[in-house]
Every structure is written in C-alpha cells, then in structure tokens.
Specification:
The chain has a domain at 32-54 and 103-240. Helix content is 24%, strand content 23%. The protein has helices at 24-42, 72-75, 136-151, 169-176, 237-248, and strands at 47-54, 107-114, 120-127, 155-160, 192-200, 205-213, 222-226, 232-236. A 6-stranded mixed β-sheet has the order 1-2-3-4-5-6, sandwiched between helices. A two-stranded antiparallel ribbon has the order 7-8. Helix 1 crosses helix 5. The longest helix has 19 residues, at 24-42.
Length: 251
C-alpha cells in the first residue's frame, strides 16, 4: 500500500492509550528519514536532504596530554641544536565556579543543502519534541536556534505535534522577531505546522509564513520548502507521516 492509499488523521502520540504501546520518540526517530525519502523524489540537482537526530545528554570529553619525550632516533632529522627548556604554566584559581543551567533538548530535523556551494544549508525542517517546549528555557533555546537561520535567509519549517504543552512555538518565534500573525488568534493551537522564509525586495526584507494549526483527528498539510527566493518544492507531511505510522505499526 502506498502512502497515498492509507491517509489517516493525526494521532495523539503523547497520551494514553497510544503512548501506552508506542513511545513518541519512535515516530520522531523515523519520521525524519521518511521526510528525506520524500524530498529525494522532488529535490532537483544539486540539492539534497539529510536527517539529523541529536538526543540530549550530558557528555564528557577527555583531553589527555602525552608527556612522554619522543625517541631521539624518531625525531633526529628535525632536531637542530640543544633542547629548549619549556616552563610549565600553573593557571590561577578561577574567579568563580558555578553549575550553569544548560537546557538539554532532543533535536529531530531534516536539512536541505546546496551541494554546489560547499554544502550550503538552504532549508531546515524541525520536528518539535517535548524537550523543546516543556520549560521556558527550552522554548527560548529553540527560538534562539530558529531565528538566526531565518536571518541568514534559510527557509525554516516547524512541525509541532506535541499537544501536551500549551505553547505555540511559531508564535514565540514571531515574538522574537518583533512581529505577529493575526491568524494565530488569542489562543493559538499548541500544535501547528509552518514554513517561514525571509525574502528581500528592493526596499525591505519581508517574512513570508505558511501556518497551519494542527488538531488530533485531522490530516496534516503540505508545506512549501524554499530552496532559494524563486524555487520551492512541496513537503507532503500527511503521506509520509502515514507511511511512518504504517511501518511502525502505529494504529
């Protein structure tokens, strides 16, 4: 069965009874690859899409300094003159040590590149996870990631099916850009799909948005993905969402 033959509405992946059987991160882990599969069918040369999944974690990087002296035979061709004594440096104590609040977030995204220009990023599709909107600092961090991409002329799409937190990240991006979208209304849906891009005119820069509120039980929209100011491809969220659910056996 093809994706076009099995269209069903958006499920609630974050509440019972569905999340009793399937964790939401099963969908988020696989959906980026399915989006890449769809885009590979419509992206013209020299553009290509690639998934990027980064899970939040605290990690440590060990730097090991090798204090063993090299063998004279191994380096005799590069030695000239007597050895030079190197004084060791003992840095002073830090003026302050704190444990910073670094928001840990999961990142599920698809990036579209132009291979002609040293893999230049032209579009980013962000799949929102609960860790992107569960706290003020994580929402702020997400917006701080999106806004600079827009300013660099990169098309940004946000797909948010997380309905367990009453925040609309598109609205918060608009706030950061000191703008508004009247279509959001006084109580915007916490779930939405949107594409945004900045384009230049002879006198000003304009922000274009394609915003679609999402509801459990409704189909997902098709979003434009802009490769440059005059060329776009379509992202059929519904078809490949359904294909993802089918492969994962999510009813």
């Amino acid at each position: 069965m093809t994706p076009e033959e099995c269209r069903m509405p958006l499920r609630d992946h974050f509440r019972s009874p569905l999340d009793d059987v399937h964790s939401w991160d099963e969908l988020h882990g696989m959906w980026p690859a399915m989006i890449v599969r769809q885009l590979s069918n419509v992206l013209p040369e020299p553009y290509f899409a690639a998934p990027s999944v980064r899970l939040s974690s605290l990690c440590e990087i060990d730097l090991v300094a090798d204090t063993r002296l090299p063998s004279p035979k191994a380096n005799e061709s590069s030695l000239s003159g007597p050895p030079i004594a190197v004084a060791s440096y003992a840095p002073p104590r830090p003026t302050r040590t704190v444990e910073p609040r670094l928001p840990l977030q999961d990142h599920y995204e698809v990036r579209v590149y132009d291979s002609r220009r040293d893999r230049r990023l032209v579009a980013a599709i962000e799949l929102v996870s609960p860790s992107n909107k569960d706290r003020l600092e994580t929402r702020s961090s997400f917006v701080a990631k999106i806004a600079p991409l827009l300013k660099r002329g990169i098309c940004v799409s946000i797909v948010d099916v997380v309905g367990t937190f009453e925040f609309n990240l598109y609205e918060q991006v608009m706030d950061w850009l000191e703008s508004t979208d009247p279509d959001l209304g006084p109580e915007p849906s916490p779930m939405s799909a949107v594409t945004m891009r900045l384009r230049a005119t002879p006198t000003q820069r304009l922000l274009d948005s394609w915003h679609y509120p999402l509801r459990v039980g409704q189909a997902l929209p098709t979003l434009p993905i802009w490769l440059n100011e005059s060329q776009a491809v379509s992202l059929d969220l519904e078809s490949w969402y359904e294909e993802t659910c089918r492969l994962l056996r999510i009813a």
